[in-house]
Amino acid sequence: MLENLMFLEKIGQGFATIMQIPIIQYHYNSRELVYQRKKVKLYHYKPKVKKPHTIPLLVVFATVNRPEILDLFPEHSFIGGLLESGIDVYFLDWGYPGVEDQHISLNDYVTDYLHHCVHYILKENQTKKINLLGICQGGLICLSYAILFKNIKNLVLISTPIDFSTHDNIIAKIFNKLEVETFVSLVGNIPGTWLTEFFISLRPFELVGKKYLRFIDHLSDQERTEKFLRVEKWLYDAPDQTGMSFTELIKNFYSQNKLIKGEWYLGSKRIDLANLTIPILNIMASEDEIVPVSATRGLKNYVGTKEYTELIFPSGHIGIYISDKVGNSMSRAIATWLEKQ
Questions:
Q1: What pLDDT digit, counting tens, does each position of 215-274 carry?
Q2: N or C: which end of the chain has fewer CB within 10 A?
Q3: How many CA atoms lie within 13 Å of 306's alpha carbon, on the beta-carbon side?
Q4: Which residues pair with 284 in a beta bridge?
Q5: Tens-place pLDDT, residues 25-48
């Protein structure tokens, strides 16, 4: 009886603690907003070394989640690791699309928003080329950009889906059955909350039951509790997806796998992976269930570059940026590879 009362008390304390999430503020390594195009923002981080790498690196996250996960814990974040390794970091924030943005397409993201950000960096640094790093769906945007434009020196991809037909790609199998056009016609944009709940539903016990039981067992650990709350804030802070871009993503990639077939077009221009001839660093997470290794590593069979490198880190799709197992080793590996190029 006493144990039951103590457990109920823990649950009450845990619930009260979780209620603090809305007031938690994101913190970042020192950065400055340097350019904005409508809702898309470009930030420049303050270097942590006296002489950063001469070629700037633009980091592009997916539109599906907020990019804060890359700098969620500034003292030991992915971005912080790049800065400590001497990288001159620019950071793209896609913002929060509203109903007025429902017709924004993947072509807009690549040839308009990303292109203007790259152009700003080139002009600001008086250089002809920069390095580009794309993550997940942001990787698809970046590799498309690197094929269309010749102002990228090196391309880094992390957890980027390339082949959507592999046997263990659970997300592709589910999305392939989604009546996306009907769905979009009803809601306009895809609610970020819907996507969050969808991804949680793939692992309900681990991401709901088990996670919260671990949380209430460690309420006395202030540092651990603070970390948990920041991740929860990020998880439920997912922006809506524009109806047009989400429809294109599902139909052209998940359903028809057009990228590796050479049938993917942006406007009138074909995105031919064979035309990707710049050096590529392709990074994967060994425990990734959202973008399994099998969906990513096939890239080497289609690109035209002779300078292709693969790295695999022991973590999941999101854990790769915040887990103790990876730490700053991925940031250092990227910096080392860029320096060699």
A1: 555 566 677 778 888 888 898 899 999 999 999 999 999 999 999 999 999 999 999 999
A2: N
A3: 0
A4: 312
A5: 899 999 999 999 999 999 999 998
How far apart CA 305 and CA 302 sit, in angstroms, is: 9
How far apart CA 156 and CA 56 sit, in angstroms, is 13
pTM here is: 0.92
Per residue in 265-309, pLDDT (tens digit) is: 999 999 999 999 999 999 999 999 999 999 999 999 999 999 999
Question: Scanning the structure block, which residue is given the tokens 């195009």?
Answer: 37
Domain ranges in the chain? Answer: 21-181+241-340
Q: Measured between alpha carbons, how far is 60 from 67 in angstroms, rounded to an integer? A: 8
Contact between 103 and 248 (Cβ < 8 Å): no
Separation between Cα atoms, residue 72 and residue 229, nearest integer Å: 11
CATH fold of 21-181+241-340, please? Rossmann fold (3.40.50)
Residues listed for the chain: 341
DSSP assignment, residue 30? Answer: S
Question: Is 117 an active-site residue?
Answer: no
Q: In the 8-state DSSP scheme, what is residue 27?
A: -
List 91's β-bridge partners, or say none: 43, 59
Residues 311/335, Cβ–Cβ less than 8 Å: no
Measure the CA–CA gap between 270 and 34, rounded to whole angstroms. Answer: 32
Cα 312 to Cα 5, 80, 103, 252, 304: the distances in Å are: 46, 20, 36, 27, 22
Helix intervals (H) in 23-177: 78-84, 106-108, 115-125, 137-148, 170-175
Cβ neighbors of 99 (< 8 A, separation 6 or more) are 188, 189
Amino acid at 302: Y
Residues 6 or more apart whose Cβ sits within 8 Å of residue 264 = 144, 252, 253, 258, 270, 271
- DSSP string computed for 47-67: PSSSS--SS-EEEE--SSS-G
For residue 326, give both structure tokens: 């990876």
Contacts with 228 (C-beta within 8 Å, 6 or more apart), sequence order: 215
CA-to-CA distance for 304 and 10, rounded, in angstroms?
Answer: 57
What is the SS3 assignment for 282? Answer: strand
